[in-house]
Each structure stands twice: as C-alpha cells, then as structure tokens.
Give the backbone structure.
Amino acid sequence: MACSNPPIFFSEVVPTHNGVSEALKGVVMFLEDHGLHRSKVAEIELAMAEALNNVVEHSVGAIDVPDVSLRCELRGSGVKLSIADNGPPFTPPTAEDADRKVDHSIAVAAEGGFGWHLIHSLASDVCFAALSKGNLLTLNFDLSPQQPKDFAS
C-alpha cells in the first residue's frame, strides 16, 4: 500500500513586514492552487497575518539572528498552520483572556490583545508551546462543509 503524503507548503520567513507579506502570498497561492474556497483562504490569511506580525513585532525583534519558519499542511478536511520562531519563550493569552480584552466599546478597551481574539475566533484550534529555544504556534482550521476537497490524512 502506498503512503499518501498531504500537500505541504514550507517557508523560512524574513522577519520584516515585507517578509511577512511574501509568506502570506505564498500560502494564499498554495491554498488556492489546492482548491480551497477564497473565503476560507481569506480567514486563514487574516489569522496567519496577525500571528506572523506578532512574531515580528514582539518575539524576534531583539534577536541578533532571528529565525522564523512557516509550515502549512492540508490534512484530512482541514488546514494545519505552524509558525516557529527562536524568540524568547512567550505565554499568549488564552481564548478566554483574549475575549475579555474585547469590549463592546472599542474606544474604552485596552490597547493590544485583539489579535489573539481574532486568531482564536478564526481558527478551530490554537495550540502554543514555549520551547527551550523559541516558540511554536499551531493553528488548525476546519474546512467548511462546502469544501469539495478531502486531503490525505
């Protein structure tokens, strides 16, 4: 029996806003080339942009040799997105903490934290690990029932 490997996109990300933009373009093209609906691609792109910008702005900025990598994998009926960096260990807010930051009146809400709320709202599962030499964020996205593709598990 032959093994079926899921389609994977991998990229080293230059930790600048231009580098993030290039990584986003690569993943969007990968997902669209594999038949994902544009609305789902847009959701994934938005969560990924927020996560990558967080890494660039808050994690690897003070490191002499920053290292950021991105892996996007089509598995089963979902998309798994992993972002690894060599920044200092970080503990992101939980979904509940991120939700608390969102106030009905944005004008009186504290600055920051909205990105984590957005990420938790768009991804079906958010997993974060502080590693000995960096961080690993994994976002899983369920594909809507309208998606005709079922990728190899």
